[in-house]
Amino acid sequence: MSTTTPGEITMPMPAPAPSSLMEKPAFSVPAKKMAMWLFIIADTATFAGCLVAYGFLRNATPNWPRPFHSITNLAVMTFILLTSSLTMLNGVRAARAGNKAGALRWTLITAALGIAFALLHIREWMALIDEGMTLLKNPWGTGLFGASFYSITGLHLTHVTGGVIALIVVGLRYKGGRYNADDLEVLGLYWHFVDLVWMFVVPFVYLLNLAH
Amino acid sequence: MHDTAHAHVGQHAAPTSFIRKHVFSLDHKVIGKQYYGLALAAVLIGMFLSWLMRLHLGWTNLAIPGLHLLTKNGAPGDVMTPEFYLQLMTMHATIMVFFVLTTAPFAAFGNYFLPIQVGAEDMPFPHFNMMSFWVTFVAFLVLMSSFFVSDGPTLGGWTQYAPLSAVGQVGGPGEGAGVVLWALSIAIFCVGQLLGSLNFITTTLDMRTRGMSLWRLPLSAWGWFITSVMGLTAFAVLMPACILLILDHVAGTSFFVPANTVINDQMQPHSGGSTLLWQHLFWFFGHPEVYIAIVPGMGIVSHVLITNMRKPMLSHRVLVYAMGALAVLSYMVYGHHMFVSGMNPVSSLVFSFPTLVITIPSTIVVLIWMGSLYGAKLRINSASLFALGFISMFIAGGVSGFFLAQPSIDIMLHATYFVVGHFHLVMGVAAMFGIFAGTYFWFPKMYGRMMNETLGKIHFWCSFVGAYAIFMPFHYLGLAGNVRRYQAFAPEYMQHLIPLHKFITIAALFTGAAQLIFVYNLFVSRYKGEPARDNPWQGTSLEWSTPTTPPPHNNFGDKLPVVYHDPFQYGVESSTGDYVMQTSPEKAGPDDEA
Asked: Distance (Å, rounded) from C-alpha B133 to C-alpha B369?
């Protein structure tokens, strides 16, 4: 502070002691946003636990099936989910600009994309169930394939469902004035996480199990 | 930041109705007391179960009058069956680890004192905080309810090793509904811990008052903060593990059961799973859990010692770094629980190395305590005695850890009483002593009355001598080959150990009875104790500068405190005597970073 070079614009000094002794807060992140980041860390541990367990079992099982033939449905689902992250960004940006109607519109579009993802996912599940793949057995190999597939994608689908409900509720209440742009941003963090974790589920659970 | 951007976070008006005040309270202080009450109920139940087990170990086939009331068919003629012994053991461990050692030092004291010590009105998410307690309470009820299902609680041990825990009824009494209730209870408990950890971390990082930099936090606050960081990820892995275990049970999947498993002469209809997978998932949580139990105790003990030594620790920062190192390393050492699991021996070596490394921060912590105590004029009171007791137990239990960390020695000692003695001293009794130190130290602030010092000292000496009398012989038993989890010692080479078991049982009954002195002291002091002053121990941290004792609903009245000093300005000349409070603007000693 005391070594001011000539020509440098000096900031107005803050009030003298005690504030001159104060450390600037190192983590000036609002509590809600920090809590969401912490939740994301915990949830990452949960997903990581599941994916590691899956990898452990897959390595330990000789007759692990590789039943998937087409990635068309998967590609469409993934495209929809990735797009929903973009629309979420637009919603948060609109909210930051004070455009309430725009923010609500983008948030509801995000929710609609989430619903589309969930419907495609459920349709895929139904097709697999029709082919005889259940939690306990499937026509191609070890029964664990179905158990781990449904557990991991089910965990993810639960996250998507919860996210869609939250998007609708928070979006409407943001419009109503109960929540603000910060809250929408915090929810956006969650939605991007759901998107990001899907990008780990896709290679491990789908692409590794594509038929040769 | 604190007085502008989100000062509103965590604020709520003082409640008026009885239910909002005492039952579904948003006040972190009430929630802390609720956690303490839950832990107290749990520890009494857990201790009672250990008495029953000890009586049976000392005198096999002893009829314990009324035992049949606790179980449907576990005690014909009031004599414990082997299965019922294992059920009691499992419940003892689960209750103690989850609902006492995690709940009391971390959730109870942390909830009450962390927001006050950082200078906040409350935690940022009071509703989450309330939920975290009630979720934990439901988890406890679910666990207790397994005493009332047809064949009683699970007998699988608190580690619930697969495959027996995953195959259902055929695994033995309590392996059906008992295991499902156990796993459900623990999964619910994990949710409560997640909510609690979110609050603890955001409180520490975001709710500090003006002037409260991280390095001005007292060591107890550091202990809770570091613990909450561990709790955030450790429980997040246990929860899916429990859900997979429930799926194995209820849906019939085979995550943890390999093919061709024959149990009780029945081929199990499972295939493909791995029993080792459960152990990996469980211990990835289980080892951090050990530190979740002990690190808050380290913080509390450091805080109690500093106040009673009237001088700072040799190094505040190194102590914090060492506790942080314990937290980080705790995730890397979990495999040392699995040396005899059939895991690749190379993995054993890999896990053995960090296990030996983790003794370094532990030793640093102990050396800082000892070095700081050297030459200090320690005030002897119940709190400081229990703090010394904590150090003693931590060293005594920790030294056997050096042996167990080596796979070649552990193979010999793994399933024996040596291990039981080790963990009871290092995480069980030590953490309990941390709870006691915290109770005697903070009770005046929590209830506005002093605890009885004479009873406190009697309680200390009985517990200190008693705990060693119980757990030191365990090491000898283990070296003599006494296998753990046996309900009777029929083999000839164990016969001569039975008199020692009888001695341990008598010591356990005595030590347990001494705890009733504590309970008596707690309740009588609550209503009839000598009224406490605002700062009975001449402490410096913020909990001693609240306008009233106990603190008002918003902790500091109309105005949040401003902090000028480190929390260890003792042994300095000042207007108040030999200490300068954190809130006092006056100049403090030369080592004051301000």
From this structure: 33
